[in-house]
Amino acid sequence: MKAAYYDTHGSSDVLKVGELPIPQPSDDEVLVQVAAAGINPIDRRLRNGELTEYISRTFPVIPGWDLAGRITQVGANVSQWNVGDEVVGLAFTWSIQHGTNAEYVPVSADAIAKKPKSLSFEEAAALPLVCLTAWQALAEFGNLQPGQTVLIQAGSGGLGSVAISIAKHLGATVYTTCSQKNIEYVRARGADHVIDYQNADYLSVIQNKEPDGLDMVLESLLSDATTQAAINLVRRGGTVAYMNNEPPQMSAIDENNIKTEFLHHRPDGDSLGQIMALFERGELTIPHIEVVPLDDIRQAHERSEAGHTKGKLVLHIQNL
Ligand SMILES: NC(=O)c1ccc[n+]([C@@H]2O[C@H](COP(=O)([O-])OP(=O)(O)OC[C@H]3O[C@@H](n4cnc5c(N)ncnc54)[C@H](OP(=O)(O)O)[C@@H]3O)[C@@H](O)[C@H]2O)c1
Fold first, then answer.
1. Does ligand 1 have an atom closer than 6 angstroms to the CB of 271?
2. Ligand 1 atom nearest to 154, measured from its CA
3. 1.10.10.10, 3.40.50.970, 3.40.50.1400, 3.40.50.720: which CATH number matches 130-262?
4. Ligand 1 pocket check for 303: Cβ under 6 Å
5. Ligand 1 pocket, 40 CB below 6 A?
6. Whose alpha carbon is nearest atom 33 of ligand 1?
7. CA distances, 265 to each of 86, 93, 177, 262, 272 (Å)
8. Per residue in 152-186, pLDDT tens?
9. If you measure from the C-alpha of residue 9 to the centroid of ligand 1, how many angstroms do you get, rounded to a whole number?
10. Could you read off the pLDDT of 53-106 as tens digits, one per residue?
11. What's the first-to-final CA gap in the chain, in angstroms?
């Protein structure tokens, strides 16, 4: 099968596109013929050699966790899926080898959901990791309620784009940050208050508008300043979900009874199915998507690495 892969850690230069054997699914997995695969920052962090203490590798590694495609084989213990089903899913594993940037991928039968008919394979493939992360942070960890306020950092990125839509679906008032070129984009996604982070200090803007503090911050940036600012932005009893790092050591956390944690997305096919139904009904909106051929994976990783893509980059793997 055609696949992108790397034999060693390193820059985007280690990525190759070539032929590898089709992997076989285990008894609890299905084999999916992949039509499209979403790109996430974790793909290039793993390729760089980060997080080896948590996630082991067997080379050659095929990158990618997000997928949309069609089932071609089901494992012996799988009863809920059939050959021919069109699915969307998150092929996350703690030991990476067979990723989604290939014509076939084995994936746990519990980590996939039916692809909504109204979504293209590319649209569906953009969604699993960012939607599960945003839903688990906002709805489950944050228990965000109608009328509450939330700051979603980096609203024009993949995670921010869907987090805005989910927070609006939950009835919250959304503050977000982005650069000037993306202001109209995040407004169109539903953001109520947009702060151009290059021309304004988001901390003082929000503190002026919300002197009692926000109910929640979804912090996906990674610096000491933004990590600490998030704690200073929420009210007593508020919530801060960190996407990249552990919470800071600040006495304000206990003093103000702030709920905070470093959250990691959890693959969950049932929850993904419920989120897909919201897209099908038009209650959530698809982020901006740029489709890139599998052959251009190096450039796609480099663009992701530069940190300023709008919405999602999605690899087109094959026509189904
Ligand atoms: N814990 C988890 O399970 C989990 C899951 C998903 C993502 N994450 C993490 O969350 C972060 C965001 O993920 P992503 O997929 O959204 O990444 P992404 O799509 O690569 O984010 C790119 C966006 O970040 C914006 N940005 C860059 N610097 C900014 C700044 N200083 N202030 C505000 N916006 C800024 C850019 O907007 P402009 O072009 O307008 O600057 C761009 O639109 C990543 O670090 C990722 O690793 C964690």
1. no
2. 34
3. 3.40.50.720
4. no
5. yes
6. 154
7. 23, 12, 22, 10, 12
8. 999 999 999 999 999 999 999 999 999 999 999 99
9. 22
10. 999 999 999 999 999 999 999 999 999 999 999 999 999 999 999 999 999 999
11. 15
